[in-house]
Design brief:
Layout: H1 20-76, H2 87-92, H3 97-108, H4 117-128, H5 145-149, E1 166-168, E2 173-181, E3 187-191, E4 194-197, H6 198-202, H7 208-217, H8 232-246, E5 253-263, E6 271-273, E7 278-286, H9 295-300, H10 304-307, E8 310-317, E9 320-327, E10 335-337, E11 359-362, E12 370-372, E13 377-381, E14 386-397, E15 409-410, E16 417-418, E17 423-426
Antiparallel strand pairs: 1-17, 2-5, 2-16, 3-4, 5-14, 6-13, 7-8, 7-11, 7-12, 8-9, 9-14, 10-13, 15-17
Amino acid sequence: MRRFRVHLPWPWMGGQPPSQHHHLRLARRIHASANSSGARQGRFLLPGASAAALLMLGVLHAKRMYDDRKLVEQKERGIEPEFAPDFKASFLRLLPLRSMSRLWGSLMEVEVPVFMRPAVYRGWARAFHSNLEESALPLEEYPSLQAFFVRSLKEGSRPIDTDPNCLVSPVDGKVLRLGQLRGPGAMIEQVKGFSYPVSSLLGASSSLHDTKEEEDVSGEQTEQNRPEVSNAKSWWRVSVASPKLRDQTRLSPKRGIFYCVLYLHPGDYHRVHSPADWNIFKRRHFPGNLFPTNERAVRTIRNLYVENERVVLEGRWKEGFVAIAAVGATNVGSIKLLMEPELTTNSPGSSIIHSQPYNERVYEPEGTGVMVKKGQEIAGFNMGSTVVVVFEAPLSKAREDGTGSSEFDFCIKPGDRIRVGEAIGRWNE
């Protein structure tokens, strides 16, 4: 029979009682070992999360550069991008983009070590052409990538156009589409070859529909702008009321409804400001998908802005109706309102079924709402996304023949870069 000798770590098992000094030495050894293990784990997790974030950012940047290069080549050949759904767009519907966006948001909230922050943020700025000189704080004071994304700017970085007869851009971004909405079934152009109803973007209860009905009643739409097919209610109101009201509007300024679609790149300033002095009456939150909103997605995903989660602010300014739709996107599930900080978007339990009613809140006092000034900060979201501005502006006085040219003129065109406070359009009284 073989015998094995086992050396026990506790000498008192062999009959020797432990001393008090031995207990102290053993406790110190265990405590030091635990601290060392915890420190090693902490040092591993934090750089690991930062490395994963940097790797994902690098992949996104490479894909963006590839897509941008293809688009530039097409435009140089005079090819206007058109709507053309493809397999990749269909595949996106199978991905859990909402859950992925929440995971991305959690990753962006991981605290970056102080010594790494300047290098990480400068790398991001080079990749997405951000101007770090405008940052209100030193780079070391932004604890995470999310805090860096939503950073404020130095005072005076965005001068606001003070002309009362102009609307200014609420965001830094690229102008995608703009134009005038005509007729009761007005459509916003997503891309050449496809449009979506403004009523679907803003909601069925939007007061924009009341505004357009009043225009139809007063005969402010010309025959060439009126659709051939209209419902019975609209036909009755126009046929009965317009002969009496048309004479009254010959000398009064007409008003039209305009829109402007602005895309925020990931490197852009991510806060949303007021385009004018106005009263915000309502807020609507539409749960939905979180598809990307870059140019490739716009050309391949049908009803992109209508399907995506979005928050709509609606009210009135001195010229009439105005609304801002902040549209979410992949990795941009978080849309924050300064006037309603408790609002939560992309919550795990929210549904993306389009038949589900949207959530609406009327701001008090009813009829007055929340008053904001031109250039005042009102909202913000992470990464890049899209903002759609729909507003009422004056047209020229009606002529004797019933025609009139638009007095409002856009100061921008599709493809232009614009910053907060710069004029979208203006007119002369």
